[in-house]
Specification:
The complex is a heterodimer of chains A (425) and B (247). With 425 residues, chain A is an alpha/beta fold. Chain A has two domains: 268 residues, no CATH class; 124 residues, abc type-2 transporter like domain (abc type-2 transporter like fold), CATH 3.40.1710.10. Chain A has 16 helices and six strands. In chain A, the strands form two sheets. A four-stranded mixed beta sheet of chain A has the order 2-1-3-4, with helices on both faces. In chain A, helix 2 runs parallel beside helix 6 and helix 11 packs parallel to helix 15. Chain A is elongated, with a radius of gyration of 31 Å. By secondary structure, chain B is of the alpha/beta class. In chain B, the strands form two sheets. Chain B has a six-stranded mixed beta sheet with strand order 6-7-8-3-9-10, with helices on both faces. In chain B, strands 2-1-4-5 form a four-stranded antiparallel beta sheet, with helices on one face. In chain B, 47% of the residues are buried. The chains are: A alpha/beta (425), B alpha/beta (247). Chains A and B meet through helix 1 and helix 9 of A and helix 2, strand 6 and helix 3 of B.
Chain lengths: 425, 247
């Protein structure tokens, strides 16, 4: 086994046996996120179960009864008719019976409908505790949907009575047919659905890149600083192993650990997000003709790899100046967090929409590249991605070279900054 | 044969002059002691010879290899034990020895032999299979010394090998060094501020104070030269504070 692999194996053993590290980076995301997601989805399921509606009917005409019957026939809705002589009394009863929603049919409901005037139904959401209000909101949605159907049916009958041949055309004279044009191709999907699919992508890729960069950078800094803190660095530097291999093995070890942590976060986040079932349209990027080709995937993997190498080298370079793990992680957060932050901005915007100065500042930051590259690859623009990979290659090599050079000088032992900890006497 | 040759070695840390042109040499098979108070320049000298620091002036050679220009070659010949050293806490003592042995050995068989020697030298027995994080200070120091010696270096550089240890552990460490030097013929450079330790271990010593070497010789020669009973008195007289020695 070569020196590099012996060193790398030691790094991996040391990292994977660190219980605190494993708990924070692997166990927490794998357990905490799904548990959080499950807790929310249980709340949603409970709310989406049976909706209990209290209804008070002050109307003496036929339409009030029709509305109650329609609500009773609706799925997942149980109607409790409240006998009350006033709105206040009805509300008091609904509160006492722990109802979520009270529907109030006014006295003039039928008469207004018969006179072709607009009738109004009151809906009261009853909040007894400070919670998410999911139940109240879902109940309101269901009642509105039922009233909408009833309202349309009544309108159709009225329009028919007025002698219209095609009541639907009178009620809705203009219809729309939405399509999208993607990469010059007409796709039979509405722009709002396309934007939804793209939004989910524009949210997840920056988040994953940001997490990976921060996790791996912190670990690399920790791995380097712990050599100083645990007084193992001096021995390490006098071993008959080239220093480039020592740095390389540390980068490799932390990259593997970072990858495991990133996968754990992705699984955890996926389970968390999946709990919500965000009204998914069932449309994927591939359905829209936005596919990444194998060549594109190679370019993307290269971009992500080089970004991580840059991040790890920079973190190690900073950690060389730190006296202990605490100082190292503080320094790395202070430097890398602002550099990685622009990646977050890309969740809400696109570089092409930015003023020139901001655009070039964003492009100068290596951490934004994987996100911009992924978008370019989806649109089939390979040249900017190729240029980005070259740029990332240069910055990663520069950072790696600087770190290895600094590591071969005595600066690795003599450079000192102590943050987050008071200097001892 | 001259193993270590140090000529007019200087080292500045900013405005602080840690070494002000020291010269000495060590012969093959010798246990050479560098003795002096804290801050005298002992550790700086050892770190330069261990290729960790770069001298500001002068030169130092190990087996004819310049410690700056031929640093990788020097690292193949030496084994360095820093004054304040630790081992990887998440590895067991045995895994730590195996890791180090693999880096120094040319074959798996050679590595196994090294680990075997290291295990015996450490005297840790079954505890070698426990994680380093569970070791006492004395146990860790024994493990580190075993690591430094098991590779049978041409030159072992030990900075305060028994510093901060209780009498039992310190005695065990000194005994190991003396026996290993006698049996294996390894050359040692040891720094210490413990004069008894040096007298017990070293064939020859250099007295160092404020970055300068004041005198060199065997403990016996030095005691005769200064008419002193022990090296402590020798040192105090050599630095011109002899009158205070009895106090």
């Amino acid at each position: 086994m070569g020196d590099f692999w012996i060193m790398a194996k030691k790094e991996l053993k040391n990292l994977f046996r660190d219980k605190k590290l494993i708990f924070g980076l692997v166990v927490v995301p794998l357990i905490l996120f799904p548990v959080m997601g499950r807790a929310i989805s249980v709340g949603m399921e409970q709310a989406q179960g049976e909706t209990r509606v209290a209804i008070v009917n002050f109307d003496s005409g036929q339409y009030g009864e029709v509305l109650i019957k329609t609500l009773r026939m609706s799925p997942n809705v149980t109607v409790d008719v409240v006998n009350a002589s006033s709105l206040e009394e009805a509300l008091q009863r609904a509160v006492a019976e722990k109802q979520n929603v009270l529907v109030v049919i006014p006295q003039d409901f039928s008469s207004r409908l018969e006179k072709n005037e607009k009738a109004t139904v009151g809906i009261y959401g009853i909040f007894t505790t400070v919670g998410a209000g999911i139940k109240e909101s879902i109940s309101e949605g269901r009642i509105n949907a039922v009233i909408e159907v009833l309202s349309q049916s009544i309108a159709r009958i009225k329009v028919e009575r007025l002698g219209a041949e095609n009541p639907d055309a009178v009620l809705q004279p203009i219809a729309t047919e939405s399509r999208s044009v993607i990469k010059g191709r007409i796709v039979d999907v509405s722009p709002s659905v396309v934007s939804g699919v793209m939004a989910s992508q524009s949210f997840s890729i920056p988040l994953i890149v940001f997490l990976m960069v921060m996790i791996t950078a912190q670990m690399a800094a920790g791995a380097m600083a712990s050599e100083k803190e645990n007084k193992t660095l001096e021995t390490l530097l006098t071993l008959p192993v080239p220093r480039t291999k020592i740095v390389g093995a540390k980068i490799f070890g932390t990259a593997v650990m970072g990858l495991v942590a990133a996968i754990a976060y992705m699984i955890g986040m996926n389970s968390y997000m999946g709990s919500f079932n965000f009204g998914s349209s069932g449309v994927t990027l591939a359905d829209l003709g936005l596919k990444v080709t194998p060549y594109g995937m190679v370019l993307f993997v290269a971009a992500v790899f080089l970004t991580i190498v840059f991040s790890l080298s920079l973190a190690m370079l900073l950690a060389i100046f730190a006296e202990d793990v605490q100082s190292a992680t503080t320094v790395v957060s202070a430097v890398i967090m602002p550099l990685a932050f622009p990646a977050f901005l890309l969740m809400y915007t696109d570089v092409s929409n930015m003023p020139a100065v901001f655009k070039y500042l964003m492009l100068a930051t290596p951490f934004t590249h994987p996100i911009i590259d992924f978008r370019n690859l989806l649109m089939g623009n390979y040249l900017p991605v190729l240029l980005s990979v070259i740029y990332l290659g240069i910055t990663a090599a520069g950072a790696l070279y600087t770190t290895a050079w600094l590591f071969s000088t005595e600066k690795v032992l003599t450079a000192k900054i102590s943050w987050g900890k008071r200097k001892r006497g | 044969m001259v193993v270590v040759k140090v000529e007019s070695l200087e080292k500045d840390y900013g405005t602080v002059k840690a070494l002000r042109g020291i010269s000495f040499s060590i012969n093959e098979g010798e246990i050479f002691g560098l003795i002096g108070p804290n801050g005298a320049g002992k550790s700086t000298t050892l770190k330069i010879l261990a290729t960790l620091l770069t001298p500001t002036g002068g030169r130092a050679e190990v087996f004819g290899h310049d410690v700056v220009k031929d640093a990788p070659k020097v690292r193949e010949l030496i084994s360095y034990l820093p004054e304040e050293a630790g081992a990887y806490k998440n590895l067991t003592g045995m895994e730590y020895l195996e890791f180090m042995a693999r880096l120094y050995s040319k074959s798996p068989e050679e590595a196994l032999k090294m680990v075997d020697i290291g295990a015996k030298l450490s005297g840790l027995g079954e505890r070698l299979h426990d994680k380093v994080s569970t070791y006492s200070k004395g146990m860790t120091r024994k493990l580190l010394l075993a690591r430094a010696l098991m590779v049978k270096p041409k030159l072992a550089i030990l900075d305060e090998p028994a510093s901060g240890l209780d009498i039992v552990n310190a005695y065990a460490i000194r005994k190991t060094i003396r026996e290993f030097a006698r049996n294996e013929g390894v050359t040692f450079l040891i720094s210490s501020h413990n004069m008894l330790e040096v007298e017990f271990l070293c064939h020859r010593v250099a007295l160092i104070d404020s970055g300068r070497i004041i005198d060199t010789g065997s403990p016996k020669e030095l005691k005769e030269r200064y008419g002193a009973e022990n090296l402590e008195e020798v040192f105090m007289q050599a630095v011109g504070k002899g009158g205070d020695a009895s106090g």
